[in-house]
């Protein structure tokens, strides 16, 4: 029973486990988690991409 | 409305060409993409999984901290006992924004008497050993000053003992009552007692959470996860998960003076953020600030094809 529960847990466990000790960067008064930094970076990339990527042109449009 | 001379007339919006646009299609695509992203990211990264801190886990992990906190709840000297509204009427405890007492304005809406709610009532509701019954009777019969002297002396003795057994002294029934409360907490009964609402689903964690927050155990656990108020904790999450990055400005003010050391920090920062939010809402009416988009010309980058075609047309006409 316990072995079966363990195998189910192993199958359902996520490939990347973010639980554990968090990593933080300190810069003067600023303390920022690496995870938040990654999200902020992704948001900036999406923002710049939204500015620079061309609009999709549908059929029948110029 | 008349326009000042020298400014170009605003073109009639109806004169621009139009094109069909399928809003439902865009909504559906966005919904599917976000749903797939949510399911995919949840499958890959799962979610924060920190075991909850309860009165039971706290009392088992750090009995000395639980005991010292319980004595302060009984003596009315804990953070909750002296918090002011919405829990009690502690004079001068409420935060103010200038002359406006924001915290007092709503009144005491969740009345909490820490001695009765956190210590005496749970003891009375649980089966009472004879020593506890006698202790409760002695506590009830004693005048307020006597009770204060007992809890104060026991609190000092616990602090001096540094987690060990306190020296002998005149503590009245306090040690018996607190020892029984510790036993109830360790058994898990105190969590249920403080959460009991008389309903089928008991979802109000206010009282157990207030009791927990009066001790140092919960705070030390939170600080270890960078969740403290002076650690930008408002925008953090446990482990390596991203948190509420959009609260960066709100939590930023708590890191700097004069808010950092102010007893009115919550009220002051709330007022400041309300003012800044109002400024954001009124951007179209603030001279200078409302012209920033025109100066930065980001719109020309987004609609660069249109402006390029316009330039070509203008050149061909010349």
Nutshell version of this structure?
The complex is a heterodimer of chains A (62) and B (318). By secondary structure, chain A is α+β, with helices and mostly antiparallel strands. Chain A is 48% helix and 13% strand.
State the main characteristics.
heterodimer; A: alpha+beta; two-stranded antiparallel ribbon; 2 helices; 48% helix; 13% strand; flat; B: 318 residues; mainly alpha; 16 helices; 0% strand; elongated
Find the count of extended strands of chain A (DSSP E, 2+ residues): 2
The helix fraction of chain A, in percent, is: 40-55%
**Spatial separation of the terminal alpha carbons of chain A:** 65 Å
Largest pleated sheet of chain B: none
| Strand ordering within the main sheet of chain A | 1-2
Helix content of chain B: 40-55%
SS-derived structural category of chain B = mainly alpha
> How many DSSP helices of chain B?
16
Largest interface: A-B, 29 and 28 residues
How would you characterize this protein structure?
- The complex is a heterodimer of chains A (about 60) and B (about 325).
- Chain A is an alpha+beta fold.
- Chain A has a domain at about 25-55.
- Chain A has helices at about 1-10, 35-50, and strands at about 25, 30-35.
- In chain A, strands 1-2 form a two-stranded antiparallel ribbon.
- Chain A is flat, with a radius of gyration of 21 Å.
- Among the domains of chain B are: about 55-225, no CATH class; about 285-318, no CATH class.
- The mean pLDDT of chain B is about 90.
- Chain B is mostly helical.
- In chain B, helix 2 packs across helix 3 (about 65-75), helix 3 (about 65-75) runs antiparallel to helix 7 and helix 6 (about 130-140) crosses helix 8.
List the helices and strands and how they pair.
The complex is a heterodimer of chains A (62) and B (318).
Chain A: H1 2-12, E1 24-27, E2 30-33, H2 34-52
Antiparallel strand pairs in A: 1-2
Chain B: H1 23-45, H2 55-61, H3 63-75, H4 102-105, H5 114-125, H6 130-141, H7 144-161, H8 174-187, H9 189-195, H10 206-214, H11 217-224, H12 248-252, H13 265-281, H14 292-296, H15 298-302, H16 304-317
Helix pairs in contact in B: 2-3, 2-8, 3-5, 3-7, 3-8, 5-8, 6-8
């Amino acid at each position: 029973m316990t072995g079966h529960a363990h195998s189910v847990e192993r199958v359902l466990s996520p490939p990347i486990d973010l639980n554990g000790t968090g990593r933080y960067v300190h810069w003067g008064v600023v303390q920022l988690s690496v995870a938040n930094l990654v999200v902020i970076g992704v948001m900036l990339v999406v923002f710049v991409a939204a500015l620079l990527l061309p609009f999709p042109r549908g059929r029948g449009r110029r | 409305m008349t326009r000042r001379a020298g400014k170009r007339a605003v073109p009639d919006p109806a004169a621009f060409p139009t094109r069909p646009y399928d809003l439902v299609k865009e909504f559906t695509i966005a919904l599917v993409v976000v749903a797939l992203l949510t399911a995919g990211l949840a499958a890959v990264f799962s979610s924060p999984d920190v075991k909850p801190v309860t009165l039971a886990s706290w009392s088992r992990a750090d009995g000395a901290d639980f005991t010292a906190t319980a004595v302060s709840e009984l003596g009315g000297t804990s953070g909750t006992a002296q918090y002011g509204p919405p829990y009690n009427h502690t004079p001068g405890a409420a935060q103010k924004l200038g002359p406006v007492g924001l915290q007092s304005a709503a009144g005491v809406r969740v009345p909490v008497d820490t001695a009765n709610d956190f210590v005496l009532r749970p003891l009375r509701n649980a089966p009472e050993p004879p020593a506890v019954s006698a202790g409760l009777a002695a506590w009830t019969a004693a005048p307020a000053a006597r009770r204060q002297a007992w809890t104060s002396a026991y609190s000092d003795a616990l602090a001096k003992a540094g987690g060990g057994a306190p020296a002998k002294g005149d503590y009245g029934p306090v040690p018996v009552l607190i020892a029984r409360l510790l036993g109830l907490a360790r058994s898990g009964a105190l969590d249920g007692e403080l959460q009991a609402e008389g309903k089928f689903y008991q979802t109000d964690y206010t009282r157990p959470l207030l009791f927990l927050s009066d001790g140092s155990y919960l705070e030390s656990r939170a600080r270890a996860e960078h969740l403290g108020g002076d650690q930008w904790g408002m925008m953090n999450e446990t482990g390596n998960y991203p948190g509420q990055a959009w609260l960066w400005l709100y939590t930023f003010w708590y890191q700097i003076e004069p808010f950092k050391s102010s007893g009115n920090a919550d009220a002051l920062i709330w007022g400041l953020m309300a003012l800044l939010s109002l400024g954001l809402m009124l951007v179209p009416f603030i001279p200078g600030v409302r012209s920033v988009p025109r100066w930065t010309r980001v719109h020309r980058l987004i609609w660069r094809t249109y402006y390029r075609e316009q330039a070509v047309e203008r050149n061909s006409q010349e």
